[in-house]
Amino acid sequence: MAHNRLPSWLKVKLGSTPNYGKVRGLLGKGSLHSICEEAACPNRGQCWDAGTATFLILGDTCTRNCLYCNVNHAKPNSVDPEEPKNLAKTVKKLDLKYAVLTSVTRDDLPDGGAKHFVSCIEKLKRIAPDTKVELLIPDFMFDDAALRKVVESKPFVLNHNIEVCESIFGRIRPEGNYSKSLELLKKIKVFDHEMLTKSGFMLGLGETEEDIKKTLHDLRGHEVDIITIGQYLRPSKKNIEVMKYYPPEEFDKFKNYAISLGFKHVFSGPLVRSSYHAGEIVEEIQKK
To answer: What is the pTM of this model?
Structure first.
């Protein structure tokens, strides 16, 4: 059964403070994109008010068409060679302590865009050396050499989202591969056993409680350190409908279950997204 009316715990206000405008303006000046806008994230007001953003590199057009995603799906433009420099300058101007970079999926590129991720990290380390960098990567068509390049660029955290439970994965993400994504996460540890790994998934697309627990077991079994669990929100009428809105207490239950499995940090809640409070999570882990 599909649900269209938002429950009270999911209603948020967009920001309108000077910081919100500052971030939006700098993104425009640098010809940069943010997943905050492209994916219609409900937290973008809060995050931009705080002077942070998750940057979307490799353009704003994806070669895949997942049913939940609001990002444009078409033939992408060529990669902007100035993007790494513009990105680093913007991060420096925003004086970010922690920056998250993600991308559209670029199956049209030989390495899926891995080289561009590395270029962005190299520029950031040169221009904004005090900023910690988290990467949220696509699967790079499961090319080990491409993944190794990115791991060797030494991001602070390397994230690859599983996105949905295995039972519904084939229907929701027909161009992805659940088991290969798990193997990708484990290979990060093979290439660098000290690197913090992260993944996340959404609820509300028809999964069962047993599906959720299995996904958590699978992720921990593949040595993932940090996990995020959030509510799927339908970004537009072209996207798949919400099947269930989980109340906050159910997210708390799944958080406690995940903690019992041994994750280093679990962030679970209706408005949680993979990059939401990403810097604070890492600070907590370091304190422990």
So the answer is: 0.88
